[in-house]
From TrEMBL:
<dbReference type="InterPro" id="IPR029058">
    <property type="entry name" value="AB_hydrolase_fold"/>
</dbReference>
<feature type="domain" description="AB hydrolase-1">
    <location>
        <begin position="11"/>
        <end position="238"/>
    </location>
</feature>
<protein>
    <submittedName>
        <fullName>Alpha/beta fold hydrolase</fullName>
    </submittedName>
</protein>
<dbReference type="InterPro" id="IPR000073">
    <property type="entry name" value="AB_hydrolase_1"/>
</dbReference>
<dbReference type="Pfam" id="PF12697">
    <property type="entry name" value="Abhydrolase_6"/>
</dbReference>
<keyword id="KW-0378">Hydrolase</keyword>
<dbReference type="InterPro" id="IPR052897">
    <property type="entry name" value="Sec-Metab_Biosynth_Hydrolase"/>
</dbReference>
<dbReference type="GO" id="GO:0016787">
    <property type="term" value="F:hydrolase activity"/>
</dbReference>
Amino acid sequence: MSTHNNSAPRILLIPGAWMGGWIWEPTVDELRDRGLEAATLTLEGLEPEASDDDISHVPLERHVTQVANMILEWPDRPVVLVGHSYSGMVVGQVADRLPDRVISSIHFDSFLPIDGRSLIDDWGPEEPTRAHERADIENGNGHPFHWAAPPPQALEFEPGLTPQDRTYLSERFTPHPGHTVLDPAHLDHPISQQKGMFVASAATNIPHMLRTPDAATWDIRVMESGHWPMLERPQDVVGLVTEHVESLD
């Protein structure tokens, strides 16, 4: 096993919607084997034992504060944050809040925060789609402010997942705190002014804010995968994270 490089940034990987730290644990293990110091966590309301009431009352700010507090509790070392899907909303705000600690971020198919806008504000191609999703979250099928996980049949449309991957996800998904995707983000500076890497799946359009001149510090990549690259192409994910962290030396 490799020895940790005590001068390298720490890497904190944040799970996306409906998932806990378990989705990133194999990635964390591989990064540690490469000599990097990596960790993950489960965001509040997504623990297996979370009650319906717990899930219903978690705001977006609590996830941002949870991650920021974890970074502040560590010794004074730079941090690289890794987000996926929903957690890009969290990662982008933490990086904005702690610019002296978060030296870069890596986003895998992330929703990127825009000040004053929620994730659902940019969900789907049309407002009727967004309105329907908001209503589903607010009602939560009898559990208000629960964002229901995709049903097993929806994962059939992810061709990069094996049958084992689909079972793994569907058996471990939990409802996601609905307020976290309805609450607006708060940033002091546009995310395009941050330093980072954005890795889009081949079917994802690169967010328009990364095409502006302000985004010169972003490294844009496209991966031939679906929405769960840590399952579909785990070694490529580890390789991109390692490459990006090493480029910061």
